[in-house]
Amino acid sequence: MKHHYCFSLFLILVMLELITISSVAYGQGNVLKKTLNSSSLHRPKASLSIDYYHRKCPDAEGIISQKVSAWIKKDPTLAPAIIRLHFHDCAVRGCDGSILLNHKGSERSAFESRTLKGFQLIDEIKSELERRCPETVSCADILTAAARDATILAGGPFWEVPFGRKDGRTSLAREASMVPHGHENITTLLEFLQGIGLDMLDLVALSGSHTVGRSTCHSFMDRLYNFNGTGKPDPSLNVNYLMLLRKRCKRESDLVYLDAITPRTFDTTYYTNLMRKVGLLSTDQSLYSDARTAPFVEAFATQPFLFRSQFAVSMVKLGNVGVLTGSTDKGEIRVNCNYVNGA
Amino acid sequence: MLTRFSTSHILSLLFYSQQSYHSSQLKLEACWNQHFLDHTHTLVMASSKILYHLLLLFFVLGDTRLYVNGDTKLMKKTCRHTKYYDLCFSSLKSDPTSSNADPRGLAMIMVGVAMANATSTSSYLSSQLHNPATNDTTFKRVLKECLDKYTYAGESLQASVQDLADQVYDYAYMHVSAAKDYPNVCHNLFKQNPALVYPPELARRENALKHICDVAMGIIDDFNWY
Do the chains contact at A244 and B159, CB–CB below 8 Å? Predict the structure, then answer.
């Protein structure tokens, strides 16, 4: 009699424990969902999740963050470079690490990709992660997380990165020309972004990454001497800035700050520059001269908090473009980011 | 060499030299008395005394005058290339370090003057914002916007000083140019809200900042960075 009593008591206790544990776990999940919704982050794709590596490779984000930090401390110009590398990946065939493939005729080998950098950093992160969690963390995920970490180190906002991307197997040099190069008009830019699921607000917000970083003179040389075949400089370029650029651009490969006023600070000076005709690229300046995008430029110029939160939202949207997930999408976990597995 | 010694140094030097002068004068008198007639002796003594006092006067007064003449030459030359000569010269002259400054130093002084204006205007706007008498919400919003712009102007000028120190003159010019533009945004906000009155004090400060920036840009422009 006593035994039965004890046993049933034991069962009840076990049940209670299980209920408590599951409810706590469920509650935490709910809180997470609530934070996501309240901070109005774009809902991650059905198969991407923030906790994707929590059981498979819990140290993944930490390792990526630590490596990115160490490299950028030694070379701060890597921060804008990694942000740009991530954009180039997502702009062509989605965020599938295709830009990282290093074979003859790959995107990376194209003329448009010649000034991309940050590949060695990604390689080092990949080696470390392969040691720690073999064949688990994709190159596409590494690059996406690295872009987030680089943004923070440059002084930008934080956002949670959803993970679970697989790496693609195709990378074609001719597709690299799809990426905006700085001479397009706003209509072309909008069409391109709409094609990958981003809108006008994203265009203006993501262009704000030009508050840091540099560009080669090649991207805007036409504005200095012979704009649109007129034989004259671009009239929407501030005269004093024109003199500065002519002096600094002796060769097409010379580098110039994208933000002339606060070149290494992640702020809204990029937008206030546009309002004073001190945008560097033609596409930068067009954001203000075009009536559709000008209101967004003005909004960001006067509201730094708005810019920071929208930038984070747009970066998450960018990171979700064309992702490969699961076996149906023919993605893989590349063991070496430079080569397709088994190649 | 003159600049190394202050007036007091020279005065004390002359005082002590006067002592030795008088003793040597006495010796000279004795010598003259021995060999020459009285009236020539007096003439020589008188003229040497006059000469001595003239020298004293020269060193005392001429010290400061030589001081100023030699060093305002550069200031005058520099200011001649700017849009507002009088503003330029008076601003530079009132700075104690200007007499020893090279063209780059003069540029830094001028940018410093601009910074002082931008900073004090920011303080003025801040006090207006926190003034309990200001209760119009639109006016407050515009004031806050203006405060931000004058703060940016100050920061841009600070960057310009650093550029000058690093001898990066084209960016120094750009930074002053930006500082000159920021007040326009503030003024435009008032234009967009006709119901609001653009405070005369702010208008005065805006004008001053733009003129000072023009002068600074004129000085930097001279450095032939293009």
Answer: no
At residue B39, the pLDDT reads: 60
Q: Mind listing the pLDDT tens digit for each residue in A171-210?
A: 999 999 999 999 999 999 999 999 999 999 999 999 999 9
For the domain B71-226, what is the CATH code?
1.20.140.40
Residue with tokens 């040099």: A173
Average pLDDT over residues A92-109: 96
The rounded distance, in Å, linking the Cα atoms of B73 and B52 is 30
Please tell me the distance from the alpha carbon of residue A98 to that of residue A90, in angstroms, as a whole number: 9
Taking the CA of residue B129 and the nearest CA in chain A, the distance in Å comes to 18
Q: What is the pTM of this model?
A: 0.79
A36-41+198-319: CATH class: mainly alpha
- Shortest distance between the Cα of B163 and any Cα of chain A, in A, equals 11
- Is the Cα dihedral A168, A173, A179, A182 positive or negative? positive
Mutate to test the interface with A, among B141, B157, B162, B181 (most CBs of A within 10 A): B181
Q: What is the pLDDT along chain B (226 residues), one digit of tens a residue?
A: 444 444 445 554 555 455 555 565 565 566 556 555 556 666 666 666 776 666 655 555 544 444 444 568 999 999 999 999 999 999 999 999 999 999 999 999 999 999 999 999 999 999 999 998 888 899 999 999 999 999 999 999 999 999 999 999 999 999 999 999 999 989 999 998 999 999 999 999 999 999 999 999 999 998 866 5
Burial B205-226 (b: 16+ CB within 10 A, else e): bbebbbbbbbbbbbbbbbbebe
Separation between Cα atoms, residue A9 and residue A104, nearest integer Å = 70
What CATH class does A60-178 carry?
A: mainly alpha
- Residue A262 among known ligand-binding residues: yes
Kindly report the CA angle at B47 between B43 and B50, in degrees rounded to 5?
A: 145
Cβ distance of A243 and B175 shorter than 8 Å: no
List chain A domain ranges: 36-41+198-319, 60-178
